[in-house]
Every structure is written in structure tokens, then in C-alpha cells.
Amino acid sequence: MSGDQAKKPLLLTNVKPIAFGSDTAEGAIDILVNADGRIAEIGSSLSVSQDVTRIDGKGAFISPGWVDLHVHIWHGGTDISIRPSECGVERGVTTLVDAGSAGEANFHGFREYIIEPSRERIKAFLNLGSIGLVACNRVAELRDMRDIDLDRILEVYAENSEHIVGIKVRASHVITGSWGVTPVKLGKKIAKILKVPMMVHVGEPPALYDEVLEILGPGDVVTHCFNGKAGSSIMEDEDLFNLAERCASEGIRLDIGHGGASFSFKVAEAAIARGLLPFSISTDLHGHSMNFPVWDLATTMSKLLSVGMPFDKVVEAVTHAPASVIKLSMENGLAVGSQAEFTIFDLVDSHIEATDSNGDVSVLNKLFEPRYAVMGADAFAASRYVPRARKLLRHSHGYSYR
């Protein structure tokens, strides 16, 4: 079933709710969605006389629609982005958040050609640099103040406040050279003016991960939180770990942002063993990370499960947690009258070898397998991405197959 077919009511049967709140009934239920996309009835073994589209969940889980908080989908406008269709509903993801692919100079194109035509809900962090990631890591977006137009950022936000959810800064010497944390400070000032969160990419220092955390405040996001880069790993520096732990307790959001160069099994496992869990799980999917090592959101979720993150926390980290960052309400998501937006998925036994951004391999004994993404009365068949085997290359944004 796809959204291109004529609308009629949708009946989901034999699905097990998760992440809808403690008062949600346990066990399998049926959900009837009206043609207008609103939930009409919830119960056990619903009897429906009208003509409906029926989907048998076969005992699969049903959660609020998955949110990927860090993707790059300004396809055609940057040299690194993929299409929303490659990482959206067909992968079980109903909301995609682009993490700074567009800056103030080209956001209008991103809105017109990507956001508006897409089936998925798309939100965006606006890059502090005017050009965004037009030529990612080949032409840096934050070399000095000539690359930033504060007035234009404020104007573009005012024109697109329903789409822009925050400011994005990449704090790494690959982008900022010797500029250090100055872009982070500028980004934080703008975020304060606009009353939106800032997402900061931490990578090769400078800037130091420690310095970035000291600038951020409650509600801000540090992405690539469990990277394994020299000088930027929270597990190679006890002071940094303690700082990250304190900041997380104060409301700074630690986001996975796997990507081609920014997730380490060893760092994640050690941090989780000590009780430091990521706030959100995201992919940092782009043209150099999709085939290797990320694949998709479901596989990234499976990786976190494999290193000790509890099942319910993994689901929380792709639903309510990232939704709170972008102010997307998931309250009463399973209630009569609410707009239907779900991901139907299984957790299956497996023996798949997966790789992190450092080339370390882990066997995934359990896999999240998306079956459907439901948006209103439309149900889109979903599955994990199966990567194409190609030659492994090393580049400035991590490893990739080409």
C-alpha cells in the first residue's frame, strides 16, 4: 500500500504498542484509521464492515513514527546528500531532520525542492555557514566571518520558522581550521536570539569536545557523542567523560550521529556500561556513509542494542527523545481522534556483522526490522537497507563504498 493509491480507511491488526506511555494496554491490538488519517477505534479483534485497507501486523511492535535527527538530504543542492526516499518511510522513518545541509543562501531551494514535495515530514537545522554543505569538506562553510551573515540567518529563519528547528555548527578543524570555538559561540548567540536549540558536530580538534560542552545549554544537541577520534573520545579522558555525564544530566542532548567517521562500538559500549546513554539515536546518513558503515536507522538502532542499550530506551531514542528536540508532540499518539503516525517493526534474531566508523566489527544478534511506516491513512511498506558491495575508500568524511 502506498500513499499514491486512493484513500480509504486503514485497519491495522495484531500489533503490539510500545512507547505510547505506561497506561497503554499490553498485548496485541487493532487500530482503525479513518480516511482522513485520524484514529477512529482501538481495540482487540475489531469488527469492521466498511471497505478498508487491511494490514496484518502478525504480532509486530507498533511505536510512534521513527525520527532520524541527523541526515543529509539536500540532494542536488550539495555533493554529499541523499534523497529523502532513500532513508524515509521505506526505512520506517516518518520524520527526517536535515542537519545543516543548507545555509541561509540556499535554504529556499531546499524548502521548495526537498521539503515541500516529500512524503516524509522534514525539518532542518540551518547551517551557520551561508553555503551549507554545497561542497562538503572541499569548500569549508566556516572559514571566517566572511562565511556568515547574521542578518540573513535571522531573515531566513523568520521566513521558514515552520521548517527550521535550530542552528547547526560543525566544530572541527577540518571545517574551521584554527578558528576554534568562535563559530560555536556565534551559533549559540543566534540560537538564543531565535529561542531554538543548536546542534554541534564534534570531531577532530580544535575545537575541543570539552570546550563545546561548556558553551552548550539545556536543549542543545551534541552530535557524534560516541565518536572514537583521537582527542575527541569521551572514553580516553576521564575529565571529559565526567563533563559529558554532568551536561547530559543538565539537559544537553547527546546524539549518536553515526556517519562515516563518528561512531565507535568500543566508546559506546564503555559509556553505556557506565550508565551514560545517548539521548537520541541518529544516522548522519549521506552519500559517503549509507553503503558503509551506517546503512539505515534500524541498523543503527540494532548497533546500540548490541552494546547494551535497553530495548525500550532504543525505541525512546528514535521517537519521543528526538521529537522533543524539534517540538513534535507525541502525546496521545495512540488515542481516538489523534492523527495516525506509526512505525511497525519486528525485533528478530540475526547473525549479521556490522561495522562502526573505525572499521571495528560486531555481530548483531538482534535486528530491528521495519515493516511499515504509517502516516495518516497511508501505509508504506518498509524494510532495512541492504548495502551494495563496492570498493572501500577512505575520504575526509570517513569510510565509504563507491
From TrEMBL:
Family annotation (Pfam families): Amidohydro_1 (PF01979)
Organism: Rhizobium changzhiense
Keywords tagged on the record: Hydrolase, Metal-binding, Zinc
Swiss-Prot/TrEMBL site (Transition state stabilizer) positions: R170
Modified residues (N6-carboxylysine): K168
Requisite cofactors: Zn(2+)
Residues annotated as binding Zn(2+) 2: K168, H201, H224
Protein name, as recorded: Amidohydrolase/deacetylase family metallohydrolase
Domain spans labelled Amidohydrolase-related: 61-362
Any one Gene Ontology molecular-function term assigned to this protein's record: deacetylase activity
Family annotation (InterPro entries): Amidohydro-rel (IPR006680), Deacetylase_Atu3266-like (IPR020043), Metal-dep_hydrolase_composite (IPR011059), Metal_Hydrolase (IPR032466)
Alphabetical list of NCBIfam families matching this protein: PRK09237.1
